[in-house]
Each structure stands twice: as structure tokens, then as C-alpha cells.
Amino acid sequence: MIIPFAPGGSTSIVGRVIADKMSETLGEKIIVDNRVGAGGTVGTRAVAKSAPDGYTIGLGYTGTLAIGPTLYGKGGYDPRKDFAPIGMIGNSPNSLVVHPSFPAKTVAELIAYAKANPGKLNFGSAGAGTASHITGEYFGHAAGITLVHVPYKGTGPALVDLIGGHIPMAFAPIPATHANIAGGQLRGLAVTSLTRTSLLPDVPTIAESGLQGFDASLYYGLIAPAGTPRPIIDRLNKELRAALASDEVRKRLQQDGTEPTPGTPEDYAVFIDQDETKWSRIVKTSGAKEE
């Protein structure tokens, strides 16, 4: 299993949880290969170029299948043509968080504040072109407001400055924010998925806060090279869904803020198409460039 990011991140955590469980049910050891570079496109391209025999699969991810093809113009793969989707694993939303001193206590109040102070509301992200940056641009576009992006070299530094009061708001992964929200160092205004998350059950979604249909979750799934025989895809999908049905896997994923969302290969293929269409438009609108 090729995971296109470094160990320790959300993609690696999700991929290893699934690899461990599927190794048990398949009776074959799944070896995880973290192949990093160019925003995940190096590892994802390696999956596309592998032999379609079922022995090389990859972790699909919104960043590599939906954002990367537009952000990295020379990624070297087509998310619709170069892969055989196996199935979706789950989704992990971001959170919209503000400093406790910020006057807005709801998304509606934040939008009103931004409209009253055009071009003066900053938001932090993990860096230019990251999912948290593009989510902020998506939010501003959907709300009809202008936000000023402040890129950091990772989620950690952005949250340090947010907690210190140097910036008023940020978009950041829920596993990185929920402890600070619970401790009062941050105020959680919303989560970016269509449904609430079990890690922050009292925090509403942006969609239910007035921006209907807003969904900026990060989705994970399994992919194989295009041309992988259908019986192999079906077997892998069966074992993936069995893994997602186990209490052990569901608990481990939910601890990392990932909500399991099993489905068929066809479901995942349709989703990849729709997700790339949506995020491609958002990337172009944001003006984000490859770093």
C-alpha cells in the first residue's frame, strides 16, 4: 500500500489502520510504503504506473485526487482514468476556530463582521495550497466575503499564533483543535463536513450555519492502477468494507477524527469525479500556486 505522505500524518494513520485489519482478513501481509513528495503526487503517480495485478494499491485522498491535479499541473496522472477505485474509507472535516477574544460566536456573526470590515479579517492555514488554505478560500467565496490568507509552515505554528492572539481565526484539522476547544483556548465556530463530528458533537456544521451544501471534508479511499481485474477489485472492496465494519477499526479512525464511509467501487468512482470538479474550481478561484 503506497501512502503518498510522510508517516505520522492523517493519511498515514488512516492507511495503516486499514492495512493492519485487511492483512488479517486477506491472510496476506500488507506492507505500507510511505512515498512522499510534491504534495502527494509522487506516491500517487507511482500507484498509477504500477502493474495492475492487485499487489500494489494506494491510499486515495482529496488532496491528491481532487486538489493536486489542478494545483500541481505536472502531477503525471488523471484521477478519473489512471485508477481503479476500490472503495471509500472515510472522511475527516476541518474545523473553523477563532481566538476567544474574537467578537463572533457563530458563523453568521463572523460573516457579518467580515462584511463590515472588508479585507481586514485574516485566517491562518498550514500553508499555501494546503487543504486548510483552500477550505478558507472556499468559505470566503461561498459566504461572499474577503478573507486575507496567512500561510504557516504547518498546522502547529498556525495554532500557536492563533492561541497567542496574533491571528483571529484559522481552519485546521479537528484532531489538532478539539483539545484546545475543550480547554477554552480556542472557540470552535463550525466544522466543515455536512454532518457533525463525534469529536466535537456540540459544534455545528457550516452547512447548518447558513451556507447550505458547504462540504470541505477530506476523503480517504483505496485505489488500484487502472486495468486491475474486476474480481480483484471486488475482493479488496469486500475486505475493506469488512474492516470498516469492525468496532476496532471504527474506534481507531474516530479517535483521529475520521468518520467511516464505506461504499462500492462505483460509489467511489462517482465521488472522485465530483470531488475533483468541485476542488478544481475552488483552487482556480483561490489563485493558489504550487509551492
From TrEMBL:
Q: What is this protein called?
A: Tripartite tricarboxylate transporter substrate binding protein
Lineage of the source organism? Bacteria, Pseudomonadati, Pseudomonadota, Alphaproteobacteria, Hyphomicrobiales
The UniProt family comment states: Belongs to the UPF0065 (bug) family.
Which organism is this entry from? Answer: Tardiphaga robiniae
Q: Which superkingdom heads the taxonomic lineage of this protein's source?
A: Bacteria
> Pfam families, per this entry?
TctC
